[in-house]
């Protein structure tokens, strides 16, 4: 399981207080925090470990055992600049090409030469050439066993596919429900006469980011939170309550699914980290010294 680096727990309370005025550029959803980038790097390496070739898998395994700073270097996404993963990808591609060439040469070495064609064959080529030869529509032996497609898939896999955002996306039907709920609440301009004008301004920015940001399509978990809360959450679950426990488990599921960004939270009331497991209050009693054995003099 990925070792997730999480942000500090947000303070909770029964009441609500509006956030201070802050420029739009500093909103949480406009900035990737170090903890978010760490989760992104871990998700990338987890996918590479599962889907990449031997060299990429070795690089990913090594990266997951490194410090966050070293992992950031190994998970560099500018793969067109000879990054560690790009180098490993090319190594795997070269190995796949060599293996494809070896299998093709092996197939041609099976050609029969110098023997008379026995009965039962439609042509001389049908006897002398193995399946998959020139003019033969049948799959060769390596294709029939699945070996050739497996190697070819690695050779033809686009390098950019590894770097697609792993965050689960909301489907069109769910996005439509989010907009139907959110447009009346956050679709207009904020009213400067409202006492919570700062909050409403943040909510408007967050709503646009949630529903109309081309670089980050609506995430499935963000949509779930939005619909379950009737909009953006406005109150924090009380620590120790069932609601807080559920929120913690939801956050675990979110990060485990590689939704690596924090929840969009204009009011800053969402649970942001997973608390450590409680320590057991039991202490091990010290061992008693063993009684001496043996006969007395």
- Residue fraction in strands: under 5%
- State Rg: 30 Å
Give the class from helix and strand content and strand pairing: mainly alpha
Uncertain regions spanning at least 5 consecutive residues: 1-25, 291-297
Q: What is the straight-line distance between the termini?
A: 61 Å
The number of distinct β-strands equals: 0
Using the alpha-carbon principal axes, give the shape: elongated
- Count of distinct structural domains: 2
Helical content band: 40-55%
Counting DSSP H or I runs of 4 or more residues, the number of helices is 11
Give a short account of the largest sheet: none
SSE string, helices as H and strands as E: HHHHHHHHHHH
- The average pLDDT score comes to 82
Note the topology.
Layout: H1 34-51, H2 54-64, H3 68-74, H4 84-109, H5 124-128, H6 141-144, H7 147-156, H8 172-186, H9 197-211, H10 220-229, H11 242-256
Helix pairs in contact: 1-2, 2-3, 2-4, 4-7, 8-9, 8-10
Top keywords for this entry?
297 residues; mainly alpha; 2 domains; 46% helix; disordered N terminus; disordered C terminus
Explain this structure to me?
The chain has 297 residues and is mainly alpha-helical. It has two domains: 32-164, no CATH class; 166-256, no CATH class. The protein is 46% helix and 0% strand. It is built from eleven helices and no strands. The chain has helices at 34-51, 54-64, 68-74, 84-109, 124-128, 141-144, 147-156, 172-186, 197-211, 220-229, 242-256. Helix 2 packs antiparallel against helix 4 (84-109) and helix 8 packs across helix 10. The longest helix is centred in the first third of the chain and has 26 residues, at 84-109. The radius of gyration is 30 Å and the shape is elongated. The N and C termini lie far apart (61 Å). Residues 1-25 and 291-297 have low confidence and may be disordered.
